[in-house]
Design a protein that fits this description.
about 230 residues, 6-stranded antiparallel beta sheet, 4-stranded antiparallel beta sheet, about 35% strand
Length: about 230
Amino acid sequence: TICNSACAPKPLHIILNSVRHEIKGGPFRFATPPEKTVELFYALGAGTKSFSYWWYTPYGEFHGCGAADKEAVALWRQIGLLGAQVRTAGPVLTRSCPAVLPLKAPAKLWTRTLLAGTDTLVLLAVNEDIANDRLGTVVVPLPKTPVTITLPSWLKAADAFEITPEGIKDVNWKNDAAQIVLNLDKTEVARMVLLTTNKSLRGQLDELYRSRFAENVAQLTAAGAK
C-alpha cells in the first residue's frame, strides 16, 4: 500500500522473490506455492498492476527457480498458474483501484475490494489460517467462506463469477437489498471473485482465458500430477 501510494499516479510494478538463498549454515528455501499465492494477492489488494519474479537463473548465491529440484519446479509451475489467473483478469485489474466497502467475512479470511470503473467490483480473499516455517507451509482450509458486501448505490450486479488458474467458475450469490451475499465454498488459499453490471464480461474473459492460457495451464497441471 505504501509503494502504491508512493508511485501514484504511475502504476505499481512488484517484483516477487523466487530464489533459494545459499547462505552459511544451509540454504534459505524456495517459497512454496501457497506463499507466493498469498504474496501476489496481498499485492493485488494494494493496487499492484504488474508483476515479475526475481529470478530464474539457477546458479550462485541466489539460486533461481529455473533449478531442477522439486521445490523450484513447483514454484515455477505456480508462477505460471498465477500468471494465467491474473492475466485473465487483466482487463479489469489494470483499470481498477483499491476501495474500502462495508463487508462481512469469516475472521480468518483476509479480504480486499477493488473497483473497476463504474461497472465491476473485484473481491480478493486469502485464507490466513496458514503457517510457514523453515520446512514449508501448512494450510488449514476454511470449510465455508460466506462474504456479504454492501455495494455502492450505482453498482447493480447482474453477474458474479470467480477467476481461477483453471478458468472461469460459477459462484453461489444473491442480491439482498443493497447487499451481495456470496456463499463461497471451501477456500484453500485464495479467491478472486468479480461482481459486475456488464453481462458480457464473463464471456469476454472466458474467451481470453481459452485462447491464451488454457493450453499452458493444462500442460502445467499435467506436469504437476506426475
